[in-house]
Write a structure and sequence with these properties.
The protein is mainly alpha-helical. It is built from ten helices and no strands. The radius of gyration is 20 Å and the shape is globular.
């Protein structure tokens, strides 16, 4: 390699400009942040209506499959978008280099594992205990929501389908809805959006938690309970700068719920 090539290789990548530069800035304006939190949820609902629901009905799959399709269609491009932003900033596809924050691992693996398990158990137990709140909120405020899977029961999306159809759907969709897609949400909402709200100070975790809860437009009646069981873990991630805590909490509890739920359904316990 000659001197010119060495100089080119050593030259830093120019800072991105335009909209990409705004996305990668250390601070997002509040209106931009609101849009970045909520637009993906609107897209998920649109993909559900236009693509997911017609496919699931055509193949006779539970409507749960429609939401799994919609989430995957929207969230996988978001994941790639984070990698693409890394390429614009560093020259290679990566979520590091200032794209996704809170990944410097300030805690030892053992300590964060114990902390993460604590948040996982908290979210799992509290979310189950708040199911009556979700039912009350739906029955009193959101009966006008008419998605096929809407209802005060936590298993409405599986009702009226054969056991084989439900189990096959859970087998194929479970790895995605039970871990991969929640993991993408953590990288995006906690690692990308939350750190870019320094102007909100201590309000940033609540802002992020509330908008992330509202982003679930397809289950809007669960917003109060989601805020209650998500906020402690998100507050910890914001304060301690370690995204592994919310990864344990959110994808971790989703994985446990998926495995236990599928097992209980297969055994006829639900």
């Amino acid at each position: 390699m000659n001197n010119t090539q060495h100089a080119a290789a050593a030259a830093p990548t120019a800072p991105p400009k335009g909209f990409v530069g705004k996305l990668l800035a250390d601070r997002h304006s509040v209106p931009l942040s609101i849009a970045l939190h909520l637009v993906p949820g609107g897209l998920i609902v649109a993909v559900y209506a236009l693509i997911g629901a017609p496919i699931s009905r055509a193949i006779g799959a539970p409507i749960f499959a429609a939401w799994a399709i919609a989430l995957a269609v929207v969230l996988f491009p978001i994941w790639f978008g984070l990698l693409w932003l890394g390429k614009q900033k560093t020259g290679r596809y990566t979520m590091r280099g200032g794209v996704v924050h809170y990944r410097d691992k300030p805690f030892s693996r053992g300590k964060i594992t114990l902390i993460g398990i604590g948040f996982l158990l908290y979210m799992f137990i509290v979310s189950l205990s708040l199911a009556p709140l979700d039912a009350w909120t739906y029955d009193h405020l959101f009966t006008w929501v008419t998605f096929e899977s809407s209802g005060s029961s936590g298993t409405t999306y599986l009702d009226s389908y054969s056991k084989d159809a439900v189990l096959l759907t859970l087998l194929f969709c479970g790895p995605f809805t039970g871990f991969i897609l929640p993991l993408i949400e953590e990288y995006y909402f906690r690692g990308f959006l939350l750190p870019r709200l320094p102007q909100l100070g201590r309000w940033a975790p609540l802002f992020n938690t509330a908008l992330f809860s509202i982003y679930h437009f397809w289950a809007i009646w669960t917003v109060p309970s989601k805020i209650l069981f998500l906020l402690p873990g998100i507050w910890f991630v914001w304060g301690k700068h370690d995204i592994r805590a919310s990864i344990w909490m959110h994808p971790g509890s989703a994985l446990i719920a998926t495995v236990l739920g599928a097992t209980a359904y297969a055994l006829g316990l639900m």
